Request: fold
Amino acid sequence: MEELISKIRELRSSWSEIEPKLGLDRRHQRVRELEAESTHEDFWSDPQRAKKVMTELAEVQNEIKVAEEISYRLQSVAELSDLAHREHQDLSGDLRPEVEALTDDIGKFEDNLFLAGPYDEGGAILSVHAGQGGTEAMDWAAMVLRMYLRFFEKKHWHTEVIDESKGEEAGIKSAVVEIDGRYAYGYLKKEAGTHRLVRQSPFNADNLRQTSFALVEVMPIIPETGEVEIKPEDYKMESFRSSGAGGQNVNKVNSAVRLTHLATGITVSVQTERSQLQNKEFALRILRAKLWEAEEARRRGEIKEIKGEYRPASWGTQIRNYILHPYHLVKDLRTGVESSDPEAVLGGNLQEFIDAELKA
Reply:
């Protein structure tokens, strides 16, 4: 019982430090803004925007509700533990489940305190690119894409593949996914880097051990009214015909779009089964994100000038190893977190790695 009392004191102390940092006043203000927007007569004229507003409204309201409930629950368990202490009763059986639940709930809010960047609360754009190695690398890139899509499903985030280039024989050359989820960018931003796979090749008759690389890029979704402004005169737009694997024609018209930012040379291409206007909107979102990311890197001194070039996905640049042969292990090279169950990790069980990255 004394151990539980001590734990309750510890939780109350932690919460007293966390709660002021949650910005509940700011969250209440955001609820009022979203509710006001939802009452506009033409609110549902843009269903995509309306859905995002309603989703964010529900998420912020839930965060406020859970935070207020934690304060009430902490007060309740503290009063019950004080009563047990005064009357020399052992109420550990009643208190332990709630103390364990409070530990988990407070821990989630504590994790969010690490997400204090300007766009951490918003959505993200995740890209996967096959490294050198032909079919092997393209198959690995497809596995990495599937791993993230399954992780997004577990998080109940809405996703859309907005660009994909299939491999000639298998896998993908590259793919771009837009993720609409609260804190998606904050959670995913440190997943950027090279992911290395070691396995017996399924494309070689001798089953030789093969090393493959895939590069992951993560960028925030920058609002049109955000700090990155792109004017029509800032870029050149070209249209071309979308094409799929095996010679399959995705569209009979030139609906695919390529934007080139004139000042930096950064190029973005989007080809989906949508209209040219929709592909242009997707391309502009990616271009805004790339410009923001490049400017952030320049500010940190990582590059001297903004360039639209990928880092090579190869030896010496990997952040995580996935080893399927001769033993089974996934190891993050930055945090040291390991899993002996690569199949589970490739099935989307990434939370342990992401939590460690946030706190590193």
The chain has two domains: 2-112, 120-360. The two ends are 34 Å apart (CA to CA).
